[in-house]
Amino acid sequence: MTSTKRLDQRVALVTGGARGIGAGIAARLAAEGAHVVIADIDEAEAVTMAGTLANTTARHVDIADPSSVASLAASIDGAFGRLDILVNNAAILDATPIADLTMERYRRVLDVNLNGALGVTFAILPLIRRGGAARRILNIASIMGVRGSRDSLAYSTAKGGVVNMTRCLASDLAPDAINVNAICPGFIDTRMALLPDGSGHEHDTDWFKDIYIKYRRIPLARSGKPEDIAGPAYFLCSDDSAYVTGQILLVDGGVSSTF
Ligand SMILES: NC(=O)c1ccc[n+]([C@@H]2O[C@H](COP(=O)([O-])OP(=O)(O)OC[C@H]3O[C@@H](n4cnc5c(N)ncnc54)[C@H](O)[C@@H]3O)[C@@H](O)[C@H]2O)c1
Predict the structure, then answer these.
(1) Atom 23 in ligand 1: which residue has the minimum CA distance?
(2) pLDDT at position 83 over 60
(3) Which residue of 4, 14, 95, 256 has the fewest C-beta atoms within 10 A of its own C-beta?
(4) Which residues are part of the catalytic machinery?
(5) Residue 145, class by beta-carbon neighbours within 10 Å (0-12 exposed, 13-18 middle, 19+ buried)?
(6) Which residues lie with the beta carbon below 6 Å from any ligand 1 atom?
(7) CB distance 104 to 48 below 8 Å
């Protein structure tokens, strides 16, 4: 019997796929038939996550380390000889107040969240050029990349860079038939939403419940789950997005449409 899964025969790489949004995207791509490579700085967690999914393998990578990224590309080349879908998802949060923000900290956040995503893209491009008919790059940015807020200069600047990097790559790679798009998640329930002081989850605080839920600054009146990102991500990695490139899709329960 032939399979009818829509991503059969595709090979996908999801950076930072060991948990959270990346794991949600990896699970969806695998469920649609793709062979998924989860590459994460936390190799143990990546191996555990890959073990729960069909057709999924784990690799170690530090996206901010060019030699680690080169090893990842060589390993995927050896195993598959090509790649169809790259999801640049790995990132770190930074919520340093401006009075405490050093250039060293700023550069570290830019190195991981912006330069890391571009470094992975460059290293993987030769493999995507050998991909099948539907070649896709999906960058996970953030609503912080299209809005400003307090204590987020480094993170938001990096994510704003990811947004415009997406548009430029879409133009540069269109001749190679590679579509490049970005998703900007809103408030999603993952470990990234844990408060830095260890006091719990941002979405469980009284101020969050008041402003965003009770008074509906998030019109859909709830925070998101990784699966809320995985559906739009699947669309942007599938044949259905053949005429979509250079686009920035805000998946945020409507929060960015209010003021
Ligand atoms: N959770 C949110 O509310 C939210 C909102 C907007 C955007 N995002 C973005 O979504 C993406 C996923 O975030 P998440 O919420 O799932 O966070 P998370 O912290 O749960 O997961 C991030 C993953 O990236 C990995 N990682 C971190 N640094 C890495 C590196 N140098 N090399 C390789 N892997 C690395 C981590 O080990 C982890 O598995 C990120 O790009 C984040 O900026 C998240």
Answers:
(1) 16
(2) yes
(3) 4
(4) 155
(5) buried
(6) 15-16, 18-22, 40-42, 61-64, 89-92, 112, 116, 140, 142, 185, 187-188, 190-193
(7) no
